[in-house]
Amino acid sequence: MKLPASVKVGALDYAIAEFAGRDAASRNLYGEVLHPSQRIHVDTSHGPARSALALLHEFLHAAINVHDIDVDDEKEETIVRQLTASIGAAMRDSPEVFRFLVDSLTQREEA
Ligand SMILES: [Zn+2]
């Protein structure tokens, strides 16, 4: 599976790269986000659905950081896990809604 190269989070670009499976497994992680270096690492060895959820999870952590959302670390992890599950399920069950959102938000007005 080929990961996208980067994702915009507010005014910043976060690079997206493979999370070396050995490192991820030894730390019991599917992904990680490194805010100072603006990097997201995803372990793709568990298949596309797990990879997508890991990327969404780390993106939400990045958004909380970049937009200075004031929440303690434990609460942040709970919020991110719940939103990842909710948004991930909605994307799987109602992909037409997310296609509509992406199409609408990326549509260019003709001059
Ligand atoms: Zn997390």
Produce the secondary structure layout.
Elements: E1 6-9, E2 12-18, H1 21-26, E3 31-34, E4 39-42, H2 48-66, H3 73-93, H4 95-106
Parallel strand pairs: 2-4
Antiparallel strand pairs: 1-2, 3-4
Helix pairs in contact: 2-3, 3-4
Zinc ion is lined by residues 57, 61, 77, 80.
Commentary on this structure:
With 111 residues, this protein is α+β, with helices and mostly antiparallel strands. It has a single domain (6-106), classed as Arc Repressor Mutant, subunit A (Orthogonal Bundle). It contains four helices and four strands. It has helices at 21-26, 48-66, 73-93, 95-106, and strands at residues 6-9, 12-18, 31-34, 39-42. It has a four-stranded mixed sheet with strand order 1-2-4-3, with helices on one face. Strand 3 (31-34) and strand 4 form a beta hairpin. Helix 2 packs across helix 3 (73-93) and helix 3 crosses helix 4. The longest helix has 21 residues, at 73-93. It is globular, with a radius of gyration of 15 Å. Zinc ion (ZN) is lined by residues 57, 61, 77, 80.
Descriptive tags:
111 residues; alpha+beta; Arc Repressor Mutant, subunit A; four-stranded mixed beta sheet; 4 helices; 17% strand; binds zinc ion
Mean pLDDT: 93
Overall radius of gyration: 15 Å
Along the chain, the helix and strand elements come as EEHEEHHH
Proportion of residues in helical segments: 40-55%
Question: Architecture in CATH?
Answer: Orthogonal Bundle
Domain unit count: 1
